[in-house]
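Checklist before submission:
- one chain only
- standard amino acids only
- sequence pasted in full

Submission:
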Amino acid sequence: QVQLVESGGGLVQAGGSLRLSCAASGRTFSSYAMGWFRQAPGKEREFVATISWSGGSLYYADSVKGRFTISRDNAKNTVYLQMNSLKSEDTAVYYCAARSAAVAAIGVYEYDYWGQGTQVTVSS
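Returned file contents:
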């Protein structure tokens, strides 16, 4: 069982930056691929970024490529999402997720554990 707790969300002006953190419980964190997803009001949850267990494979949604960076620190059981050049369309609840596999994945249904989410609001 893995428990995930996100933090770092908030209100920021367009063009600004935020860094989200996701702290995971459990001693097997390093064996899980991790992902970030987001869900805006009235929309389905969508993929943002994913990272393999080693950090060697990274994938991003086209909408965030070049602006967001996913990383992980296995010694701290934490995954991060650095978000730069934020836009109003980035406003959403951001969720951290873990999958019981080492390989990164982009599908919502490929993940086994989810955090409670953290709100990111970008004002224009």
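Reviewer check: The chain has a mean pLDDT of 96.
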